[in-house]
Amino acid sequence: MVSKLSELQYLFYADCGKRIKRIDSILKCGEHGITANDYDVLYQEFDSLYGGAKAACFPELENFFFALAGYARFLKRCLPNLVSERDMRLIREGVDLVTAGESGQCSGIEENRERLLVFVKQLSEWMQRHSKGV
Predict the structure, then answer these.
(1) Phi, psi at 111, each rounded to 5°
(2) What is the DSSP letter of 105?
(3) pLDDT in tens, 52-95
(4) For 36, what's the count of Cα atoms within 13 Å in the CB-facing half-sphere?
(5) Among 55, 42, 70, 52, residue whose Cα is nearest residue 134
(6) Domain map of the chain by residue range?
(7) Which of 14, 74, 88, 95 sits at 20 to 30 Å (Cα–Cα) from 120?
(8) Which positions ≥6 away from 84 have C-beta within 8 Å?
(9) Contact in structure between 100 and 112 (CB atoms under 8 Å)
């Protein structure tokens, strides 16, 4: 019999794949600019992944998705000013860490745990440095 935690983790991985696909489509469609609504959707997807990671007892992912949700909200507050390509690349880098480059698959989680922690720290530091102007 599969333990309850394993079931939750399995469900989290399945949900993660679906949400990452939605995030990917926003990032691809938004190459010419992302709207305030797109940032809201990014926030909602990352926030849902944060909640799922918390329920499935993935503390590194919990922190990671919480940071990305906050970053999406931060970028929305930067509007109507243009958000730079570098700013958006940070979201792409985060998604790539989780997917290990495989679109829509949460296959990079285990092998990238340390890099996820470093990414969260760098993202938090970046937001602190840039929040003074917003």
Answers:
(1) -75, -10
(2) -
(3) 999 998 888 899 999 999 999 998 888 777 667 777 788 888 88
(4) 5
(5) 70
(6) 4-133
(7) 14
(8) none
(9) yes
CATH class of the domain comprising 4-133: mainly alpha
Taking all residues of the chain, what is their mean pLDDT, rounded to a whole number?
A: 82
Q: Percent of the chain beyond pLDDT 70?
A: 81
CA 109 to chain centre: 12
Place of tokens 């470093």: 118
Residue type, 50: Y
Question: Which among 110, 128, 10 is positioned nearest to 60, based on CA atoms?
Answer: 110
- pLDDT tens, residue by residue, 102-117: 655 676 666 777 888 8
Nearest Cα neighbor of 75 from 19, 49, 37, 103 is 37
Of the candidates 31, 21, 18, 71, the one whose C-alpha atom is nearest the C-alpha of residue 47 is 71
